[in-house]
Each structure stands twice: as structure tokens, then as C-alpha cells.
Design brief:
This protein is an alpha/beta fold. 43% of the residues lie in helices and 19% in strands. The chain has 5 helices and 5 strands. A 5-stranded parallel sheet has the order 2-1-4-3-5, sandwiched between helices. Helix 1 links the parallel strand 1 and strand 2. The model has no long low-confidence stretch (mean pLDDT 93).
Length: 151
């Protein structure tokens, strides 16, 4: 699995949270950090899009995080991830920069995911996404980590 993200995590506490879940993942999650773009908003999005698209493997299932994306529950994400892997498609999660994702990235995406209507800092999005990937694996394995609260 791969996570392509614009921006570099520098804060040790944030890195520790990502690593907390990442070390439990099988298959492993490869994280590709891309530099923030420079220039006008449109130029930034264009340059970041080129780097994002180059970092996504050709046959991967690209799931782009986007405020206009679909809201998935954890069980739905788990089921979808299982399907991608069964089909032999490596999941490739994409987190854009502060300007958002260019239309070319959204066109390439096989699906989009929204973490809700709230605006989140990109580094928190990364932490929450890695935790949800771990949660999805726990759901699929029948591990008690995920408790839905439903009977």
C-alpha cells in the first residue's frame, strides 16, 4: 500500500502517531512525501498534481482525500480495501496540499474520500487516515480493535 502526501511531517509527536499504526500494517504502508508547491494557487496545484500522479503506481487503486468526496464508514472502507487487494490493485491513498487537489488528480482517482465537513490540518489528516487503514485491517481480521457499538 502507498500513501502519497504533499508536505513533510516534522513534528515528533505527529510522526509517533503515524508510526504507531503504520508498524502494525500488513502489507506495509509506504509513505511518499512530496514538497509543497510554489507560485500561484493554480501553479501550486498543477505542480503538485504532476508529482502526485508520478508517485501513484500505474495499476494502483487511487483513493484521493477530497472535501467533496464520499463519506465512508470504517466497515465500508475495510470492505473496499479487501476488494482492491483481491483484484490485485495496490491501494494508493492521496493527500493533497493546502490548495487542494488539481482536477487531473481527481480524474485519475478511482474514488474519493471525505473525512467530513470539517477542515483538518494536513498532518492530522495523515494520522487519521493511517489509523483508519489500520482499523480496516482490524475489521477484516475480526480483531476487537474496532467496536461499532451496534448489537
Amino acid at each position: 500500500m502507498r500513501l502519497v502526501a504533499v508536505g513533510r511531517m516534522k513534528d515528533k509527536a505527529e510522526l509517533a502517531l503515524v508510526d504507531r499504526y503504520r508498524k502494525r500494517l500488513r502489507p506495509a504502508l509506504d509513505i511518499v512525501e512530496l514538497p509543497d508547491g510554489r507560485g500561484s494557487a493554480e501553479e501550486i496545484k498543477r505542480r503538485e498534481a504532476q508529482a502526485i500522479l508520478a508517485a501513484c503506481p500505474a495499476n494502483s487503486f487511487v483513493l484521493a482525500l477530497d472535501e467533496g468526496g464520499q463519506s465512508w464508514g470504517s466497515p465500508a472502507l475495510a470492505s473496499a480495501m479487501q476488494g482492491w487487494m483481491t483484484d490485485g490493485r495496490q491501494p494508493c491513498f492521496v493527500i493533497g496540499g493546502a490548495e487542494g487537489l488539481d482536477a487531473s488528480v481527481l480524474r485519475r482517482a478511482d474514488a474519493t474520500l471525505s473525512l467530513g465537513a470539517l477542515t483538518w490540518p494536513h498532518m492530522l489528516v495523515r494520522i487519521m487516515l493511517v489509523e483508519q487503514i489500520y482499523r480496516a485491517q482490524a475489521i477484516l481480521a475480526g480483531h476487537p480493535y474496532h467496536r461499532s457499538g451496534r448489537p
